[in-house]
Amino acid sequence: MPFVNIKITKENEIPTKEQKEALIQGVTELIAKILNKNKASTVVIIDEINTDNYGLGGESITQVRKKRS
Question: Transmembrane segments in this chain: where (predicted)?
């Protein structure tokens, strides 16, 4: 059973519900096409990560982006 985990930053209401549904469908199709796996047994999980919850260079991404703008 294929198990795909997508980690994506949640910012400004993106990704939307529709975008996540498109990701799930698209990844499932790709796994079926490339690996010849059954779509019905393909699991896709999307983890949305808030920019306060990861960092770069000792600062949260929220702070890094504030400095850049």
Answer: none
